[in-house]
Design brief:
The chain contains three helices and eleven strands; from the N terminus they run ααββββββββαβββ. The protein is an alpha+beta fold. The chain has a single domain, classed as Beta Barrel (Lipocalin). Strands 1, 2, 3, 4, 5, 6, 7, 8, 9, 10 and 11 form an eleven-stranded antiparallel sheet that branches.
């Protein structure tokens, strides 16, 4: 009988079962590993100025065959990291939010999972059950309808949030890599 550690090693080395369009999407972002890019808000129908006049940077910081860690820096705020993970039944997008001391924010690990194959350039992540429960608990039930989308084209990467009455999008210029920022809060260089 195999030991637990040998079974665990076999599982971690097992090929990830996935869909061609999701593999192509994941791999297109993974090709940017180690690079950072400046962005700008191109759509925001809220009255918030959270992102106004702040330097926006995405950094494809750490990449494996199963997960991409993509910090999203907003000015001096390094609290956000997008975690794009192959799950075997699609792709998961989680928002890892941390405090400056590295501890978890009360609003962390929300996100969603693909429901279909998507496209090599576009994937959608409707809010998962964990996120819906978190949003209700935090008094923002309007967010249970959130769908996050990511787009990757040769010259542009976009992050988009949509729900009834709300749209937000940031576009990043992939033609001009910039100096990567330091590690996001809670992570090590």
């Amino acid at each position: 009988m195999a030991s637990f550690s040998s079974v665990a090693a076999q599982v971690s080395e097992a090929p990830l079962v996935s869909i061609a369009s999701q593999d192509a999407f994941f791999d297109a972002i993974k090709q940017k590993c180690g690079q950072a890019f400046a962005g700008k808000v191109t759509v925001d129908n809220s009255n918030s100025d959270s992102f106004a006049n702040k330097k926006l940077i995405m950094h494809v910081r750490k990449c494996s065959n199963a997960q991409l860690q993509i910090p999203f820096h907003v000015g001096d705020d390094a609290s956000r990291t997008w975690l794009l993970t192959k799950t075997g039944s699609g792709l998961s997008l989680k928002h890892d939010h941390r405090h400056k001391d590295g501890t978890n924010d009360k609003s962390t690990m929300y996100g969603g999972h693909t429901l279909d194959a998507g496209w090599a350039q576009v994937q959608s992540f409707p809010a998962d059950q964990y996120s819906k429960e978190l949003f209700v608990k935090q008094g923002i039930p309007q967010s249970i309808g959130n769908t996050w989308q990511m787009y990757i084209y040769p010259e542009k990467f976009s992050y988009r949030l949509v729900r009834d009455g709300r749209e937000f999008r940031v576009d990043f210029d992939l033609t001009k890599p910039i100096t990567p920022p330091s590690a996001p809060w809670g992570y090590q260089d």
